[in-house]
Amino acid sequence: MIPSAIQALEQVPWFAALEPAVLERLAARSRVLTLRPGESLARRGEPQTRLSIVLAGGLEIAIHGRDGKRHVVRHLHEREVFGLIPVLDDGASVHDADAHGLTEVLQIPREALLAELATQPALAMGLMRLMCQRFRQLYELFSVQHLLPINARVAHLLMNLINLEPQGPQAAPADIEVHLTQTELSDMLGVSRQSLSIELKKLEREGLIRLAHAKCVIADPVGLERYARALM
Length: 232
Fold this sequence. Notes:
The protein is of the alpha+beta class. The chain is built from ten helices and eleven strands.
């Protein structure tokens, strides 16, 4: 069951601290959009006039090069936000976004968000923190992708993914499932599926992960983090 617009906004950390009246105004102007698996939400270079919050399912964020190659940047899960840059600067979308499974998103019009930003310092501060968090993730991704060997890149990618999963790092004692195929993981790393498979099987032999159909189970999150840090 899809939560109400106000409930959805309250689940997003940088909306939760806002006054109820602000949430009501944003909710009143929002809409819920349902996407079929693989259906496009946005295309790089096209106008993006609504901020999207994932309510259910997920979004695959990618870039396509001129040579046709596709690089998956990340996957967005419940309560995560897409379209912040074009909504704030009135430019085009910087990524492609496709539904990863059946997906529901709450969309807030640009005009409604900017009107609240003009009078709500808490909302502006929350957005700045979110932007800083995104930039830190990009810098970390850049250093991992360009400076580390493939075994370190695989381990760090899995660590980043479980930190983004809805369960969060607090679920470390239990198994954490990453619902991505090996093809999707290899797209995110920019390596061949065969190369990725070799590294995943090494991690499985170490007892750090378990491979299953269309997912990877992190069996020992603490051990995986220790393994990843040792390769830095």
